Amino acid sequence: MAIEVRIPTILRTYTDGAKAVEGSGETLAELFADLETRHTGIQDRIVDGGELRRFVNVYLNDEDVRFLDGISTKLADGDNVTILPAVAGGMY
Q1: What would the pLDDT profile of 33-60 be if each residue is shown by its tens digit?
Q2: Nearest to 40 by CA among 9, 22, 14
Q3: CB-based contacts of 51: which residues, under 8 Å, 6+ apart?
Q4: Where do the domains of the chain lie, and which CATH numbers do they carry?
Q5: 41 dihedral zone (left: phi>0; alpha: psi -120 to 50; beta)
């Protein structure tokens, strides 16, 4: 099962600069564990204590996984996963 994972600039040091990588797994948790086997350190930047880190947004086919099943969200062959760090700051 091939799943494309789009990597944000801040995490590309783990993927040798690749903007997108392929992985596999039946759930997001399995996908992140699979990515860790080839891109050591990336999983810890996305997951903390078995849950998505607070300031990391993950989208499955453009839908926020927090409104699905979070890290337990089921995946299918050909899915696209996008990892985006939350952005905050500025003046008010």
Answers
A1: 999 999 999 999 999 999 999 899 999 9
A2: 14
A3: 70, 71
A4: 3-85 (3.10.20.30)
A5: left
